[in-house]
């Protein structure tokens, strides 16, 4: 019996997510009051595998009922149900843009005098404790609907046959903001910058010439030795604690040169150790400083 509880910020993609779970063969329920979760789990278990996978969206549309969500999660854990909590998030500016484009009302707009930003901030406060319970957190700020669907398939379709932790290596640019779903963040802006080399300025960290430039420095070699040692120490310890996903973010100024090269190096190392690993270059296509 597999249960995925989907929650997170309004506008972060929960409706898209529930459709993806339908495509994966889950029995799906949207806008479920949290108090119903134990009963749904009990009823699904009683079907003797006729319903073996359930995905339910639980969010602040539940009003006052949502206030009991944390207590319900504790109850589910006591019941030994195999459930995962998926939290979808996005930067405030992205959420505001999405609401303006769709012209939909935020669920907390009545409490915020119609201010979208104030409603978003109130929702963040309500979800702060819930987010700490998440097994998987996905920042959808830069993801297209297809990207989100692919990411969910990557995580949850593999869960059927393999319960090992998924490790995502991400490069990003600090000027575009920190990734909200990162568990570990490393700043590589101390490495000499290929942006200031005319022949490398408009290339990316995936190209041979840029890689050679970034990796040739002693400071880079020393950093990679220390980074590799730390990551290979942390991964089995996170896995031992039952963590389902580990997102390691490598950042430089614009996410085009140094962070990409270092992320690629770390990805190859982790993959070579037999871990389930993916890589994502968030800002590589943005034509800015590296």
UniProtKB/TrEMBL annotation:
ATP binds at residues 8-15. Residues 166-285 form the RapZ C-terminal domain. Residues 1-158 form the RapZ-like N-terminal domain. InterPro entries: P-loop_NTPase (IPR027417), RapZ-like (IPR005337), RapZ-like_N (IPR053930), RapZ_C (IPR053931). GTP binds at residues 59-62. This is RNase adapter RapZ. PANTHER family: RNASE ADAPTER PROTEIN RAPZ. The gene is rapZ. Keywords: ATP-binding, GTP-binding, Nucleotide-binding.
């Amino acid at each position: 019996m597999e249960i995925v509880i989907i929650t997170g910020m309004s506008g972060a993609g929960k409706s898209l997510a529930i459709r993806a779970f339908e495509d994966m063969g889950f029995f799906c329920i949207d806008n479920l009051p949290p108090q119903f979760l134990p009963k749904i789990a009990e009823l699904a278990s009683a079907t003797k595998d006729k319903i073996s996978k359930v995905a339910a969206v639980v969010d602040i549309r539940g009003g006052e009922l949502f206030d009991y969500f944390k207590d319900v999660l504790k109850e589910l854990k006591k019941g030994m149900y195999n459930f995962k909590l998926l939290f979808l998030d996005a930067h405030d500016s992205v959420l505001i843009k999405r609401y303006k484009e769709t012209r939909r009302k935020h669920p907390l707009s009545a409490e915020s005098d119609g201010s979208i930003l104030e409603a978003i901030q109130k929702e963040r406060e309500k979800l702060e404790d819930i987010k700490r319970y998440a097994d998987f957190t996905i920042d959808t700020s830069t993801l297209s609907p297809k990207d989100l669907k692919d990411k969910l398939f990557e995580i949850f379709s593999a869960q059927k046959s393999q319960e090992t932790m998924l490790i995502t290596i991400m490069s990003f640019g600090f000027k575009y903001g920190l990734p909200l779903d990162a568990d570990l963040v490393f700043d590589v802006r101390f490495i000499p910058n290929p942006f200031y080399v005319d022949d490398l300025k408009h290339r990316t960290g995936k190209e041979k010439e840029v890689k050679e430039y970034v990796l040739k420095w002693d400071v880079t070699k020393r950093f990679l030795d220390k980074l590799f040692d730390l990551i290979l120490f942390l991964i089995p310890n996170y896995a031992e604690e039952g963590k389902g996903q580990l997102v390691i973010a490598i950042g430089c100024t614009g996410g085009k040169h140094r962070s990409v090269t270092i992320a690629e190096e770390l990805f190859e190392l982790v993959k070579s150790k037999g871990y389930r690993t993916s890589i994502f270059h968030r800002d590589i296509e943005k034509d800015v400083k590296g």
